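Thread title: Can someone regenerate the structure for this chain?

I was given the following input by a collaborator and told the matching structure tokens would be attached. They weren't. Posting the sequence so someone can regenerate them.
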Amino acid sequence: MFGNKKSNQRRFAGVISGLGISLLAALLVACGSDDDSSTPAISEGKQVTFAVIATSDLHTNVLSYDYYKTVADPTLGLERTATLITKARSEYPNHVLLDNGDTIQGTVLSDYQATVAPIKCEDTLAQYKVMNYLKYDVGTIGNHEFNYGLPFLNQVTHNGNNCKGPNFPLVLANVYRVSDGKTLFPPYTILTREFDGVTVKIGVIGFTPPPIMQWDKKHLEGQVTVQGVKESAEQWVPQLRAEGVDVVIALVHGGLSNAAYTSTMENAAYYAAQVPGIDALIMGHSHSYFPDGKNYANMANVDNVKGTIFGKPAVMPGFWGNALGVIRLDLEYGKGAWQIKQSKAELRLTSSKDASGATVYVSPDPNIAPLVTQEHQDTIKYVNTPVGTSEFRITSFFSTTGDTAAMQLINAAQIDYVKTFVQNNLPQYSSLPILSAAAPFKMNFGGSGFTDIPAGGIAIKNIADLYLYPNTLQAVKISGETLKGWLEKSAQQFNTIDPAKADDQSLISSSFPSYNFDVIDGVTYQIDVTKPAGSRIVNLSYNSQPVLPTQEWIVVTNNYRASGGGGFPGLDGKSIIIESPDTNRDIIVSYVKKVGTLKRAKDGADRNWSFVPVAVAGKVTFESAYDAEAVARDEGITNVFKDSDKADKSVSFYRLQLAK
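Best answer:
Regenerated them for you:
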């Protein structure tokens, strides 16, 4: 159950790492582990090189497979990253393999094992089966690990129980149990490694984003507390150093931002890098890449070519298994301690271009797929379960340029659910109008692709593709002022367009994720993209009457948004009046079953929002699905026109005629 001898040693290190220094010293003396008389002296000037190999944001993309389309997808999958891991290990016999979190949630495979056919204590998650095979050394806990609740998380990570799980320690320094004040997982672990005949002690510490307390409030409130990443690092790293480690590696499940620091900061790697005692960082959460010579190029004290932050090597190795991070550390022994003399951080992608410009993908490790055959087949069977039919195609292609049936379906299902709930359980709110907010999760942001449900049978996989996340439904009671602020935040999806500019102008902001572009149904409004952010929503009306700042509304959304996810004004968890145990996805499934057949006239987009018409001297451009202008017409969007296609036919380039 506990793996091989080396795994047991790693487990022991993970257990004792959180103990007090004096108790730890006593244990080490008793075990004879640090007996100087038996440790060969290391000569001055001795040099050794080892590599830190890392993944992040795997999100249970174990295989190169898209469960939403039920087809192979070579752009993702740990089975391909595994090939890069094997190659890196051959280059660096001295190495450690780490994972930076958001590991056990993210595909229908993970949902199936967590909620549809919950995994038993005596079984190991498919994700951990593969990671055990790859012999990971340490992992940390990302924000999405909490999505299924603490009992599930503790079970599958065998945290405080004898269930099956990873054969490597998981560390997390900034989340504490309310019950006893101790960290939920050991804050760090110490790996003692023999490299080229000498001993090197490597400390690994982990951090998760503090906003988990808002994002998963229903699972975490009253159960745990969270400390800021910087404060946590300043508390634990000195203790880790006091235990005699030679190198400290921080697993920061957060991205890179130099915004003013707060203890609730989501992407705090920039500040973690400034904490004395940390030598190297693995970053993540942002589904981005570092170093790549492009991202974060203008940030002070960041070198996105060499891969350093305040001089410390760092990597952010993509997402879904599409990249591997490698940090080479060259150590030299002097004055009784190992010093990092030189380092190199790099990204290794699972895809590349050949001489002709065609994309070439790394071959998968053939030993991985057989490890999860049963789980894979069970998931495919599940996602193909039919729930209804549609007489028309449902896509997310143009959900940021006009109202679409995709958003209409989500909002209709949510409103239907809450109307019944209010009638049966909250009659005191029966006089309030019920609105609904939905966002297009797949608009190719970060390479996510698009939702595309063909006319005909609708299966669970189609609903899962439309609503990617296992959020639960919540509803808030807000004022008209907050409603307008909500829409203003959503309108940050768009760049500010200058009507007088003759050059092409890009409509969609590259830094604003589409999952924060909420379309609110039940009211009508327009967006003026020629105005600066914060003053774009005009003609906001309900039943043809202007929305007043003091009017009260019920708005249906999900637990992420209602509790503050995305930083929307007025949404901080205090206005929640409904906390459903049902996921938004399951509510959509039930709605489609109830309707039976979706028809365009009744279930298509109601065109409740549009852009303010304005003449623009140049083109307003955006990219979307390949050769899909006809789809825009079917949706009733008449001001979108295709200009050209990308060479690889992955997307097409369009223009939005704002004057129309």
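The longest strand covers residues 337-349.
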